[in-house]
Each structure stands twice: as C-alpha cells, then as structure tokens.
Known about the structure:
Helix content: 55-70%
Strand content: under 5%
Radius of gyration: 20 Å
Structural class: mainly alpha
Largest sheet: none
Shape: elongated
Number of domains: 2
Number of helices: 3
Number of strands: 0
Oligomer: single chain
Amino acid sequence: xxxxxxxxxxxxxxxxxxxxxxxxxxxxxxxxxxxxxxxxxxxxxxxxxxxxxxxxxxxxxxxxxxxxxxxxxxxxxxxxxxxxxxxxxxxx
Length: 92
C-alpha cells in the first residue's frame, strides 16, 4: 500500500469533488512491482546466458535468484487482485 496517493489519483479525486460525485477507491495497484519483476526475469536470463557462454564468469546464483524472485513478483501482481476479489475484499 502506497504511503501517499499518486499525483494522478489526487488530480482525479479533486476533479470529482469539484463535480460532486465521491470517488470510491478500494485498492490501488501499482505496476512498478510488475515492471521490476519482468526486468528481473529478463536480466536473470541474460545473466544465465552470459554465464553459459563464459564459464569463468560468476553470478549464476544471482541470475537464478533474479528469475525466481521476478516470477514470484509478477505472479503476486497478477494473482493478488484475483484472490482479493474471490475473498470479497472489493465488496466491503
């Protein structure tokens, strides 16, 4: 959960307050985690490819860790809202 709202959200909320309707924001999902997860996967595979071509290179464990954590991050970003919706979180 962000420590403060985005500037875009604040702009939308202030415009809606000026017009009358009250926004009902239940969950704010940022895409930064998904983007970093995808980058971790891409750079992890690039690192593994480099380590395979250059056996003297080190960091194969770091590359594998990046891939695993990137996959976990992207899966949580995709599955998290689905689980919350199934649990009825959005209806509160």
